Amino acid sequence: EVQMVESGGGLVQPGRSLRLSCATSGFTFDDYAMHWVRQGPGKGLEWVSGISWNSGRIAYADSVMGRFTISRDNAKNSFYLQMNNLGPEDTAMYYCASGRGSNFYDAFGIWGQGTMVTVSS
Amino acid sequence: EIVLTQSPGTLSLSPGERATLSCRASQSVKWNYLAWHQQKPGQAPRLLIYEASKRATGVPDRFSGSGSGTDFTLTISRLEPEDFAVYYCQQYGSSPPFTFGPGTKVDIK
User: Fold this and answer.
1) Phi, psi of B50 (to 5 degrees)
2) Residues of chain B contacting A47 with CB distance shorter than 8 Å
3) What is the DSSP letter of A65?
4) Which of A13, A97, B19, B95 could tie A108 with a disulfide, CB 3.0–4.6 Å?
5) Number of neighbouring beta carbons within 10 Å of residue A50
6) Furthest C-alpha separation in chain A
7) Chain A closest CA to B24's CA: distance in Å?
8) What pLDDT, in 10s, does the model give residues A12-53?
9) Chain A contacts in chain B segment 17-36 (CB below 8 A)
10) Which residue does chain A place closest to B45, by CA atoms?
């Protein structure tokens, strides 16, 4: 069974850091590009960051550039989002998603169930 | 950055009716790399359509996508009770960000 499971969310104070993880199973992880997408409470979807199959292509939304870092470990079938200097605007459900293939430019075929990040003092 | 606009914001229909959802891009979407995702309350999004008109695995054929360039449409031929949800279009053909539209909510009339 294909699965993507996020972890690492929680309540954090403004200015602090958090590291999200996405563990995958049921498919050949290193064949696929991976992405993080977030959704603020009652809001729409916002693409946050993406990483190609070999980490050769990485991109970020302007809203997180310089604060967030995406990475992956193909040996562990997992990828990560290091989030620094968090602000209230970063409060959201964070979803990990897989591209449909190795092409960085591909639709997001598989989604995890999400992990909630709340930034508040 | 490509901005996506979806209309209408809310569509109120009855089961069995046809739903037509629109997505308009601020500039042409390269290779028609336009996807539609469905999201139900409390659930993760689910890919329905990619490359504007190709159904994802397991998606019923009552869902169809069409369009090219800057104008795209998702059509649900006959609404089933499980189709009442929010639908987002997303472009992934141009350099990031891979933007989403604001969504169209399809609710029961």
Assistant:
1) -135, 165
2) 90, 96-100
3) T
4) A97
5) 26
6) 40
7) 16
8) 999 999 999 999 999 999 999 999 999 999 999 999 999 999
9) 31, 33, 35
10) A111
Residue A41 CB coordination number (10 Å): 9
Segment B41-61, tens digit of pLDDT = 999 999 999 999 999 999 999
CB B67 within 8 Å of CB B58: no
* Structure letter (DSSP) for residue A80: E
Residue B26 token pair: 């601020």
Beta strand spans in A1-121 (E): 3-7, 10-12, 18-25, 34-39, 45-51, 58-60, 68-73, 78-83, 92-99, 108-111, 115-119
Backbone angle region of A8, left / alpha / beta, with phi > 0 → left and psi within -120 to 50 → alpha: left
DSSP B32-70: G-EEEEEE-TTS--EEEEETTTEEPTT--TTEEEEEETT
Chain A residues in contact with B44 by the CB 8 A cut-off are: 95, 111-114
